[in-house]
Amino acid sequence: MLFNSIDFAIFLPIVFAFYWFVVNRNLKLQNVLIVAASYIFYGWWDWRFLSLILFSTVIDYSIGRLLRTQENITKRKALLWTSILVNLGFLAFFKYYNFFLDNFITAFSLFGTPINAQGLNIILPVGISFYTFQTLSYTIDVYKKRLEPTKDFIAFTAFVSFFPQLVAGPIERATNLLPQFNKKRVFEYNKAVDGLRQILWGLFKKIVIADNSAQIANEIFNNSDDFPGSTLVLGAIFFTFQIYGDFSGYSDIAIGTSRLFGFNLKQNFAFPYFSRDIAEFWRRWHISLSTWFRDYLYIPLGGSRGGTWVKVRNTFAIFIISGFWHGANWTFIVWGTLNALYFLPLLLLNKNRMNTNTVAQGKLLPSFKEFYQIVLTFSTIILTWIFFRAENIDHALNYLSRIFSKSLFSFPNFQLMELAFYTLFMISIFMVIEWLGRNKQYALENSSNIKSNYLRYGLYLAIVITIMAMGNFNQNEFIYFQF
To answer: Contact 281/272 with Cβ under 8 angstroms?
Structure first.
């Protein structure tokens, strides 16, 4: 079920009404309703894959219970590795089986030993990369004794399958979200209003910014051989805003929807396109995944505590694996490697923690230095997104070669120029609002400080009208559903 669909527009009020007006006096029934709603939400796409979520839930719940009483270190490690192998085994099979098979065949063919093997027609379950990491974090935290394992199977099932963030995050930690299923939840009007405001902003990002940008980016990327470098630059810029509007828009809707039901999810995007270096960008982009890799991969590998070689090794490991997490394609591995290369000078010069505050804190405009840093960082990010969007390595390299040619200085011209003009105008307004709200959890949060009801609700009405007038209502799937 898509957030930007009529189905969800009907589904959400029904669940909300039952949650607060029918089962509101019983915590257990509220959690049962969340589980039922979550399974309906996910099963709307393909009910067959509900068995995967249920199996993963049962495995990690059971292992958590066993770890609670097991003190033998060898047996504890065996339980932990059971969870890791089961969860990553599912992920490897559904997401990477054909990738590894194709590369295995190619490798042997290079040495003159052709292999005849056929790939499987595997459907990738939506959100499998997200909920497997979420359940894994629970088992690891229980193993490390950072978290007391739950005895409540319904609460744990609700934690794993919580429908607002089930298929594209944020990837929640059990330490934050699971205890919220064990506490009585009382309806808070201000919290619900804030949730609706964040949902509205998320829908604007998705329907107006991302989906219009996608139409243009797809036209240019899919026909890149027919366009000059100037048009290809536009295509890369539009994809840059497509992926941000799409993914951060999903996160806003997920977080806002959670607040309607009395839950607090962690911020997943912190205005990353205003970053002054690549290290700051990665502290602000897909925060739940970046911190997951930091806590469960980078730090266990030694983090930055060792010598130069250890720092370099761990940096490349986390970025390359992060790239591979996104998809079974060499383009994602190159994308991760490029980000590691961008990050490396900052790490070696001990400047990777240089920009941890909000840019232009307390000021309306950035300094010239800050503006230059933002533009430079944003430009390098655009180049990496070309690999992320390209069909394969050859496509990406050809795309870049055409950008860095004489045709870069021609005037861009393609069929969707009128849509591109209006979308750039909307992106400009969007970025101004984002800039003004950059010190908040999401840009529209600042609107709560507008004292005049007429101005505040006038702003909301203007956004709704803009969505209706400028939105793309083709019910496009969110990009991260494929990851």
So the answer is: yes
Strand, helix or coil for residue 128: helix
CB-CB neighbours of 473 under 10 Å: 12
Tell me if 346 sits within 8 A of 277, measured CB to CB: yes
- Give the integer Cα–Cα distance in Å for 23 and 100: 48
Q: What is the 3-state secondary structure (H, E, C) of 21-78?
A: HCCCCCHHHHHHHHHHHHHHHHHHHHHHHHHHHHHHHHHHHHHHHHHHHCCCHHHHHH
Ranking 314-323, 448-457, 458-467 by mean pLDDT, the lowest is 448-457
Q: CA nearest 166: which of 455, 440, 481, 399?
A: 481
Tokens 């964040």 found at: 198
Please tell me whether the peptide bond between 170 and the residue prior to it is cis, using omega within 30 degrees of 0. yes
pLDDT computed for residue 118 by the predictor? 62
**For residues 322-349, average pLDDT:** 92
Which sequence spans correspond to the domains of the chain?
6-185, 191-276+355-482
Q: What's the N-to-C CA distance of the chain in angstroms?
A: 16
Round to whole Å and give the CA distance between 203 and 250.
8
Among 156-160, 167-171, 236-240, 424-428, the minimum mean pLDDT is found in 167-171
Confidence of residue 109 (pLDDT cuts 50, 70, 90): low
Residues acting as catalytic residues:
326
Q: Check if the beta carbon of residue 288 is closer than 8 Å to that of residue 171.
A: yes
pLDDT for residue 169: 77
Please give the DSSP secondary-structure letter assigned to residue 317. H
User: What's the rounded Cα separation, in Å, for the pair 102 and 118?
Assistant: 9
- Find all residues with CB under 8 Å of 59, minimum gap 6, and list them: 82, 83, 86, 87, 135
pLDDT (tens digit per residue) in 134-181? 999 999 999 999 999 999 999 999 999 999 999 887 999 999 999 999
CA atoms within 13 A on the CB side of 365: 5
148-155 LR contacts (CB < 8 Å, sep 24+): 148/68, 149/64, 149/65, 149/67, 149/68, 150/61, 150/64, 150/178, 150/182, 151/65, 152/31, 152/181, 152/182, 153/61, 154/28, 154/31, 154/32, 154/35, 155/31, 155/181, 155/182
